[in-house]
Amino acid sequence: MGRACAWLLLQRGHRVLLLDPGLDGQRDPSSGSEAALGVLMAQVFHRNSGRAWRLRQRSLELWGQWRQQLQAQGWALPWRPGLLLLASTPEELERQRQLVASRRQQGFALELWDQPRLDALAPALPIGALGGLYSPADGQLDPGPALAALLADGLRLGLQTYCDRVERLEQRPGGWSVHTRCGENLEVEAVVLSAGVASSALLADLGHQVPMEPVLGQALELELPLPTNWRSASPWPGAVVWQGLNLVPRASSKLWLGATLEPGDQADPAALANLQQLGGAAPAWLQQATVVRQWQGHRPHPIGRPAPLLEQLEPGLVLASGHYRNGVLLAPATAEWVADQLEQGSQTSQQTPS
Questions:
Q1: Strand, helix or coil for residue 109
Q2: Nearest 5°: CA angle at 228, between 227 and 234?
Q3: Distance between CA 322 and CA 29 in Å, rounded?
Q4: For residues 61 and 42, what is the distance between their CA atoms, to the nearest angstrom?
Q5: What is the pTM of this model?
Q6: How much is the average pLDDT of 47-56?
Q7: Is residue 122 a contact partner of residue 225, using CB atoms and an 8 Å limit?
Q8: How far, in Å, CA of 291 to CA of 216, rounded?
Q9: Residue 62: how many CB atoms within 10 A of its CB?
Q10: Is the pLDDT at 250 greater than 80, yes or no?
């Protein structure tokens, strides 16, 4: 979220300093961005209106524009179009039918796939899939290359960076003082706070109660057994979602699988073991796949409030955090909202997106 906001502000002609303890290349095991699989679920979202719906649609549109802009500068953002959302119960299948009818009225081209069509796919889908909702406009964006591209192009545009953790924020006449762990005191005009769960403590010192909790997610990269592997292209229509878990085809014979939903910040080995079994619905090829890599991260989940948390708390202090499971998807729309708030100034204080 921080890199997306920084990049767009630079595009609009602002001077930006990005403070991030992860700029030294050391992977932060608690980072939600590090754990993300980049599945963008916008048009298959179950609602038809409201803030969450509008943010998702705007972000999907902006990601298309951002990919083109960054590609023009030589930064590739791997994008896999297509998303197949599987139904595991008759009730879920009926909700999908209703959603397709509703989306068609809105002009979106969603499709219902019946069980015979799913059974024709290889490798086999999770056991028990009764049907599926296919969206050609949704898809999957690799978070790693996206983060790298936003940073690299930001540097080209004049981004200043500082590798340190923020310990305290202090309001001063005309702006803010940012105190870092290493003892630096940085004077800035405005602050955009996108520090995940850590945002809560920084804001509490200023008298703002914005509670968030970590929800840990574990993910796997798997090597598919021969002759299951799909070589250079997947026969699936894109990423597949089964009961909240994402199966993302990779190049050659790889698959990303994740992520778990575990309250707190401590990984559960049993949850990881159950992940590859898909709760008992894993086809034989998935059970036989070899784990190549595993990783985890924390999603910032707002307590008692809907995600995400987008607020201008004070003049020059903007909160853009708490995106929970949709940080990659909502990054462009969040950045656009942040830039608008800062450019409109204190007149929009306390406002959230309508």
A1: coil
A2: 125
A3: 17
A4: 10
A5: 0.94
A6: 95
A7: no
A8: 20
A9: 19
A10: yes
